[in-house]
Amino acid sequence: MEPADLLQLGAWDTPHRDPRGRYVTVAYLAVVPDDARITAGDDARTARWWPVDGLPEQLAFDHAEILTAAVSAVATTTSPAGTTA
User: Fold this and answer.
1) What are phi and psi of 64, to 5 degrees?
2) Which terminus of the chain has fewer CB atoms gathered within 10 Å of its CB, N or C?
3) How far does the chain reach from its first CA to its final CA, in angstroms?
4) φ/ψ (deg, to 5) at 6
5) How many Cβ atoms are within 10 Å of 52's Cβ, its own excluded?
6) Interval 40-82: pLDDT, tens
7) d(CA 80, CA 65)
8) pLDDT at 84
9) Residue 2 CA to chain centroid, in angstroms?
10) For residue 1, what is the DSSP state?
11) How far are the Cα atoms of 21, 23, 41 from residue 44, in angstroms, in the given order?
């Protein structure tokens, strides 16, 4: 994936958003192939893809807010047929 393939969604920096300490998250959106592999990072034991309509009700920290921004960005950058505008 190239940097040009990424769409910056925004930055989340509310104090106390993470009980582990002061963190700022800059989230990006990328469209990946259906068979794209995902790998857990240094702060997760496992990682997996979830359908947007099948996410757990409870997400960590402000991740629901970040996902809402991502879904909104996808809705505004894709045509009704699902192809990028």
Assistant:
1) -65, -40
2) C
3) 19
4) -100, 140
5) 9
6) 988 889 999 999 999 999 999 999 999 999 999 999 876 555 5
7) 24
8) 52
9) 17
10) -
11) 17, 16, 6
